[in-house]
Amino acid sequence: MKKSPIVSVLLLSGVLASSAWAEDGIQFSGTLDLAAYKGFDGKRLVGSISRSNVALSGEKSLSQGLTLTGKLNSRIWLHNPTTHENLVNEDPKYLGTAEATAGLKGDWGHVRFGRALTALWQNDWAYDAWYNYDSIASPAWQTWHGNSPADPNASQQGASFARLNDGVFYSSPSLGGFSMDASYGMKQKTGDTHHSQSVALKFKQEKFGAMLAHEKTPAGNAVSFVGANVKVGSVDLLAAYDRERLANGTENRSQTISARYNNGAWTYMAGLGVQRDYGNAQFVGAGVKYAYNQSVAIYGSYGHKASGFWGSTKSSDAYGIGVSYSF
Fold this sequence. Notes:
Blueprint: H1 3-17, E1 26-38, E2 44-47, E3 52-61, E4 67-76, E5 99-106, E6 109-117, H2 119-123, H3 139-143, E7 151-155, E8 158-160, E9 163-171, E10 178-185, E11 197-204, E12 208-216, E13 222-232, E14 235-245, E15 251-263, E16 266-275, E17 281-291, E18 296-305, E19 316-326
Antiparallel strand pairs: 1-2, 1-3, 1-19, 3-4, 4-5, 5-6, 6-9, 7-8, 9-10, 10-11, 11-12, 12-13, 13-14, 14-15, 15-16, 16-17, 17-18, 18-19
């Protein structure tokens, strides 16, 4: 485990343990996801298609309109105890791998320190029908910024695609529907050539949203992202353009479009992703979800990668059915 996440966790634990903190409240939440599926590699497994996590967060009011905040969010993996295999394995697994931050907020916005999603990754989910949270069906998951992990040297175990250690994170208040998120990596690790820098400019109304974001990774890759969504009756239409310019000068450009239709307890999703720099190779996803109650949902996911997708020489399919429980 890295030193800085430990410091963040200890600081957060101390804050949460304070008896005074309880006057404002602590929240325990999370999601458990378990599914049976066939992966794109043809293996049939039991595990998580979406992420499972448990989180502890809290706030403590201070004087002059300030609020002290803290959050500890850890991923967990539900899978076959015999195979110990997962569909996706990207982040080193330690306490607080999803987030470990302590922060302060007021009328001027919210600043946090520790480990969390960069400004780009914190917001891109709003432009995908699956919230960029389904590793089989989501075109966003399959195409966006796939060469540009937010923290490529997070640990000896490997890269962290969406989260940044040793970071400072800022979220502005909304002004006329406009707001901004920004993040910055305070340290450079062995192998890094730059400090992580990420900013997202957003606009949100009742039925329309849009975002323009730019991120420079520690490896020197530059990611530019434009997203928009609109709600028409019971249908959400979402689209995005993602452009990676790698440190070696090559590009990876992708476009996604997806839709989500809500009909009572049922939700239907469909989406398409196109990789312009891989011969316009396509990814197609489809899914359905049934909300059994406020906490339990049953879902099905399907994804198809065409030949040429990420340089593949043949097409592949994946599908699965699962259940998620949120609390």
